[in-house]
Amino acid sequence: MGRSGYRRGAAAAGRRAGGFVFGPSRRLTAVPYGPHIYFLGEEINLSVRLRTTGWDWFVPNQVLAHHHYAKPGARSAPWRDDSESGKPHVPSEARLRHLFGTEAATDRRALADLDRSGLSRARPLAA
Fold this sequence. Notes:
disordered N terminus
């Protein structure tokens, strides 16, 4: 990830994965994780905010790691074993629709802190 051009052996990426992010620590202060986004939507939220702030990111040209959710004997994913798990996603999804301009949000939870964790005007979302 970085502000410079193409990295040897890597390809520019349009999205990033939440479990596989490496880069300089200044990225965390420049574009912190969205405080009002629950699990689903975190990756696309941060991807578009990084893009509009001017950050580029790259993916390796070979498999470096594998993430497997279903470990034998481990707890199921929270969205599978908790009947209430969908509730935190409602304001998160409304916030994403609001950020992308597809639907104006009215829920205060979806609109909280948009001045600090919304899209930047440094670079347009469309390439």
